[in-house]
Fold this sequence. Notes:
The chain is α/β, with parallel strands linked by helices and 301 residues long. The protein is built from ten helices and eight strands. An eight-stranded mixed beta sheet has the order 4-3-5-1-6-7-2-8, sandwiched between helices.
Amino acid sequence: MKQCTKTIVAILFIVAVTGMTTHAKEKAGHVIFIGLDGWGSYSFEKAEMPNVKKLAKEGAYTLKKRSVLPSSSAVNWASMFMGAGPELHGYTEWGSKTPELPSRVIVKNKIFPTVFQLFRDKNPNAEAGCIYDWEGIKYLVDTLSLNYHEQSPDYKIVPEGLCDMAVNYITGEKPVFAAIIFDEPDHAGHQDGHDTPEYYATLARLDGYIGKIVEAVKKAGFYDETIFIITSDHGGINKGHGGKTLQEMETPFIISGKNIKKGLLFDESMIQFDIASTIACIFGLKQPQVWIGRPMTQVFK
């Protein structure tokens, strides 16, 4: 009887361990995250973005993801990378460089835990980087957890600067995790207005850059092992943002690639901090207790 009991316990232990291992298994070998600052969901149908729409059609997406408040830049990029809202990470303004409210938790790099830090802890030797137009991004990504981070040249002078940097980085270093964040939709929204011909012309041009980034992944040889994520921090209305209209708060979330369901338009509730949790799920990372994000598990095969 004792031997039988021991056998049952051993079997249960193996099942439990196997279950945990399966749950933590990586969904893909690489993640390429592309952010378009100021890209509102209201523009999705009207915009000429064939590369982005192809990724959406071949993957899963929602146009109902909501920003945290205020619906402006730093607070939302922080939430996207930190798996929690401003009440916990403490970045509360459009241009926050440090928390205005003390972060609930501080980790080894003297910042609230980011998805980049979780990735680095599990993968100490893997290549990870972030390239961006807007300098404010570098205060939100935990640069000490990255191999490489750099701001692009002024896109008003060198329009393809960030795209070229991204292509060179992908083909040269073959990053496991890369974030590429364009600022131009936000600039067009402030200068010319959201939902204007100039705004849509900017989106069409950026779609061409996204196509080049996808081609770079193919050239680098890891396309079949990659998940692409394309999303935004906020939308806008007239020449501003930060308010409580859906035009300002609803942003697209597109996820496409290895182990992602095809042709899925999902309707489950999603908020910015769920992105960090979804990336953590892709890489099999255990999210910290202070995070409140939920992985969008419905998008995976």
